């Protein structure tokens, strides 16, 4: 009796027997399976592949999970392209309120992860050497030094990698309050440099901070000024001379103070010598990376694109060498970074990321930096947004231009957002592996993203209608707005121009015609806006590229049978070519871009002509002629003017001073109020006395005489902006050895 009770109790404790839970291998062998997942004990012992037949419950759970994933992905896409108001509405619809979002903040006095980036996992690519310095060597490297307290470090990360955001912001703002005092001390220190006149130094720095720095923000001004005054890692003679060289490029040649610097070449030579010293350091410095990024931009602007590409590549290698591309959450516990350090590191990486996208589209090459650990909310020092901007150092600027808030950091944040869309566009449209089944929806999605991005821009940095604005915004804000419209052109231009079968999608071809012409017209109004306030001076490399890209559409539109459309395209093209050739006086590489446009004009009107652009003096198109005469004749020499610039003696560095732009022998200094090709004469050759000289490799084939030079040149992302630059896609690097 007792035994029976025990057996009954035992059976009851086991519960009801389960059926149908065996894995496929055990079921096939008709042997008992313990149902352990993911691998049962028998399969583990025998080394068999353990597979369970999905039950109805499993299938239902999987379908629910997939539906949930699809829903969440859709919500993420909506949030990504939404403004703050729309984002709040989407979150509310999902049952997430502001109170819910801040629950963790209320529980632990507003402790948040740095930059809102990622999870706090230990990083295998980082180690600490015997001196306590962070080293970027992964676990496979012979230089890797494993941390014997890795478990403790992981726990420490989760506890200590959280910090008080308001405290960091307060720290940064306190330093910003000291900025003006430190800047005076900096200028006083620079007066002790006997090699540079104090007035010249002050003028060059002022020009850099006003016109060049706000676009890419690679130098964190607060740290630079502090360390140049008091000493520290964010200042170096190399960086200072690079800034001088970059600013010197746009100095007024009629000002005697700037005659000796040879458009910054004197400082460039010194910077290159100092770079040799920097390269011998055991560990790259952030100031060196910043200098290389600026140097890369300067050399590209001058048409020395290979130099610019290499300097930028060095900067990217260096920033990876010291782990700037790694989320700072994984560095903070080891490096003990201050809020200043964190802000400087973020700005350098974001600057490199944004500049990498600029080079990518200008040179027609895939981006190098594809991953970005930061969101656009990660910059916490926005004190420079309130700094007043005015066009200092530009004598012929609009004298009525009012002081305007710079919104420097705000604009920089949105450049980061736009750069991420640029990467997506490049991978979708300019990839050789375009999926014809998905290209339409992907292109439309990208257009929606770009238009939503523009619509969500804060009003203080958004230019809705450039034709109705009296004063042009600061160049960095101007660049953000015009680039948004140019990216829409780049998104659709291959479908409009390219003869490649992969772009022959009827719906997209029709859409491309409308979008490209509309956006080119908007670019034209942006040019007129810039010209009204700043004449044609101090253009950046990015602005020149945007102008060139708009011109490629005007060339295509010139041959439309609609005379009104052709005349409008001619007016737009005249404005763009004038602006390009004006800047070419200081950036000779741009003259080649203008020549590309004129060569396409020749091919457009006379496709059978294979001769290069006429470099002899040509006659001007008379003002009483009309565009149809040019179309009928096919003779683009009618668009040329006599060679009007005369060479001046070269300087010791090989530079030639810029000519005075006046009189009948100069490029027109103002745009016609109502103009067309009949009112603007296209120079038929590169000015012989370009302010800067650029040499081209003798092995490089002139695109004007190359048999491969076709209208399809406009279809790639660079569009011929840098004609001597080799462009490629990632697919071009896949070698087919069957053909060797």
From TrEMBL:
**A single BP term in Gene Ontology:** DNA-templated transcription
| Membrane spanning stretches | none
Say if the entry is tagged with keyword Repressor.
no
Q: Which ranges carry the Zn(2)-C6 fungal-type domain?
A: 22-52
Q: Where in the cell is it found?
A: Nucleus
Q: Name one GO cellular component term.
A: nucleus
Task: Point out the coiled-coil segments of this chain.
Answer: none
* Keyword terms of this UniProt record: DNA-binding, Metal-binding, Nucleus, Transcription, Transcription regulation, Zinc
For this protein, the record's InterPro entries field holds: Transcr_Regulatory_Elem, XnlR_reg_dom, Zn2-C6_fun-type_DNA-bd_sf, Zn2Cys6_DnaBD
Identification of the protein by name: Zn(2)-C6 fungal-type domain-containing protein
């Amino acid at each position: 009796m007792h035994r029976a009770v025990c057996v009954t109790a035992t059976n009851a404790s086991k519960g009801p027997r389960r059926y149908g839970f065996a894995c496929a291998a055990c079921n096939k062998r008709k042997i008992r399976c313990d149902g352990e997942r993911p691998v049962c004990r028998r399969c583990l012992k025998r080394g068999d592949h353990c597979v369970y037949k999905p039950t109805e419950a499993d299938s239902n759970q999987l379908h629910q999970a997939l539906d949930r994933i699809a829903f969440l992905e859709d919500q993420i896409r909506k949030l990504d392209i939404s403004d703050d108001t729309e984002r709040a509405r989407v979150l509310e619809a999902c049952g997430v309120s502001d109170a819910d979002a801040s629950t963790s903040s209320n529980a632990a006095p507003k402790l948040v992860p740095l930059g809102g980036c990622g999870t706090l996992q230990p990083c295998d690519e980082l180690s600490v050497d015997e001196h306590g310095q962070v080293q970027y060597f992964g676990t496979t490297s012979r230089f890797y030094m494993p941390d014997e307290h890795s478990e403790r470090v992981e726990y420490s990360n989760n506890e200590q990698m959280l910090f008080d955001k308001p405290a960091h912001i307060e720290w940064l703002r306190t330093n910003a309050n000291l900025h003006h005092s430190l800047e005076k001390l900096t200028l006083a220190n620079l007066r002790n440099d006997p090699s540079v006149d104090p007035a010249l130094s002050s003028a060059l720095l002022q020009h850099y901070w006003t016109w060049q720095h706000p676009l890419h923000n690679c130098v964190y001004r607060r740290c630079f000024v502090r360390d140049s005054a008091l000493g520290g890692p964010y200042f170096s003679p190399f960086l200072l001379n690079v800034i001088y060289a970059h600013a010197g490029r746009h100095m007024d040649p009629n000002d005697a103070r700037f005659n000796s610097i040879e458009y910054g070449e004197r400082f460039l030579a010194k910077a290159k010598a100092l770079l040799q010293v920097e390269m011998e350091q055991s560990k790259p410095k952030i100031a060196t990376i910043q200098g290389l990024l600026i140097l890369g931009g300067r050399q590209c602007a001058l048409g020395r694109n290979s130099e610019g590409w290499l300097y930028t590549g060095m900067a990217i290698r260096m920033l990876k060498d010291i782990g700037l591309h790694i989320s700072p959450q994984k560095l903070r516990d080891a490096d003990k970074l201050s809020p200043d350090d964190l802000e400087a590191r973020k700005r350098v990486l974001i600057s490199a990321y944004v500049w990498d996208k600029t080079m990518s589209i200008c040179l027609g090459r895939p981006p190098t930096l594809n991953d970005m650990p930061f969101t656009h909310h990660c910059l916490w020092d926005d004190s420079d947004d309130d700094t007043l901007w005015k066009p200092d150092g530009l004598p012929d600027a609009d004298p009525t231009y009012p002081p305007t808030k710079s919104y420097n950091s705000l604009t920089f944040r949105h450049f980061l957002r736009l750069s991420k869309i640029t990467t997506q566009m490049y991978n979708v449209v300019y990839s050789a592996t375009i999926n014809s089944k998905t290209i339409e929806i992907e292109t439309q999605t990208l257009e929606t993203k770009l238009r939503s991005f523009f619509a969500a821009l804060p009003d203080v940095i958004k230019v809705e209608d450039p034709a109705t604005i009296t004063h042009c915004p600061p160049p960095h804000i101007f660049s953000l707005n015009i680039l948004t419209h140019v990216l829409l052109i780049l998104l659709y231009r291959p479908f409009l121009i390219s003869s490649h079968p992969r772009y022959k999608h009827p719906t997209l071809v029709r859409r491309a015609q409308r979008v490209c012409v509309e956006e080119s017209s908007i670019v034209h109004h942006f040019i007129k806006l810039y010209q009204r306030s700043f004449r044609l001076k101090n253009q950046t490399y990015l602005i020149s590229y945007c102008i060139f890209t708009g011109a490629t559409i005007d060339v295509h539109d010139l041959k439309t049978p609609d005379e009104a459309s052709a005349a409008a395209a001619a007016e737009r093209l005249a404005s763009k070519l004038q602006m390009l050739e004006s800047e070419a006086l200081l950036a000779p590489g741009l003259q080649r871009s203008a020549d590309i446009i004129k060569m396409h004009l020749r091919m457009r009107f006379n496709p059978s002509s294979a001769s290069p652009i006429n470099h002899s003096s040509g006659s001007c198109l008379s003002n009483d002629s009309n565009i149809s005469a040019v179309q009928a004749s096919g003779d683009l020499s009618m668009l040329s003017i006599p060679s009007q610039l005369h060479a001046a003696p070269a300087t010791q560095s090989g530079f030639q001073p810029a000519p005075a732009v006046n009189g009948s022998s100069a490029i027109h200094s103002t745009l016609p109020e109502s103009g067309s090709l009949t009112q603007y004469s296209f120079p038929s050759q590169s000015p012989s006395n370009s302010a800067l000289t650029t040499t081209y490799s003798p092995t490089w084939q002139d695109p004007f005489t190359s048999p491969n030079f076709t209208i399809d040149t406009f279809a790639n992302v660079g569009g011929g902006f840098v004609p001597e630059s080799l462009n490629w896609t990632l697919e071009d690097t896949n070698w087919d050895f069957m053909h060797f």
